[in-house]
Amino acid sequence: MPGFVLCSPKYPVHAVTRFEVALGILEHRNIICAGYRAVLHIHTAIEEITLSEMLHPIDKKTGRISKRPLQFLKQGQQGVVVIETEGPLCTETFTDSPQMGRFTLRDETRTIAIGKVTKLLGVKSA
């Protein structure tokens, strides 16, 4: 089925329902805040998600993560957020496996954001 992953028994892929991501908003008319729902496309999986927490903004010029809290994101901004899925999703961090750690967010027919997985929360091996 789409989203299923074959892996080595020595190095199982993680199945998570919460993960931290670095997110860049490409095209969206309104602001995006905690509780926003969208469709996540990651490797071959397509899953409905909720942006559960807005953590920190990312400075576009330096790429550094600010310590101040993030209230919302708008078009052209980047930030660190926590994504929650309804069911477990096989994924890895971008540094461990770039193919398994990059994704797009879509709303209706538009791609609104791209990002990469930075941290897995509540890790279970698949």
Automatic annotation (TrEMBL):
<dbReference type="GO" id="GO:0005525">
    <property type="term" value="F:GTP binding"/>
</dbReference>
<dbReference type="InterPro" id="IPR009001">
    <property type="entry name" value="Transl_elong_EF1A/Init_IF2_C"/>
</dbReference>
<dbReference type="Pfam" id="PF22594">
    <property type="entry name" value="GTP-eEF1A_C"/>
</dbReference>
<feature type="domain" description="GTP-eEF1A C-terminal">
    <location>
        <begin position="18"/>
        <end position="118"/>
    </location>
</feature>
<dbReference type="InterPro" id="IPR050100">
    <property type="entry name" value="TRAFAC_GTPase_members"/>
</dbReference>
<keyword id="KW-0342">GTP-binding</keyword>
<dbReference type="InterPro" id="IPR054696">
    <property type="entry name" value="GTP-eEF1A_C"/>
</dbReference>
<protein>
    <submittedName>
        <fullName>Translation termination factor GTPase eRF3</fullName>
    </submittedName>
</protein>
<keyword id="KW-0547">Nucleotide-binding</keyword>
